[in-house]
Amino acid sequence: MQQIFLNCYCRSRSAGTTVITLPIFAIITMQTGCYPEKSRVTNQLLDTLCHNLRREVIHYFENIESTDTATVEELATHIARRVPEMDQEQVSLELTHNHLPKLESNGWVEYETRTQCVRYHGHDSAEELLAELAEMLSDQPYSAYSD
Question: Is 0.90 topped by the overall pTM?
Answer without folding.
Answer: no
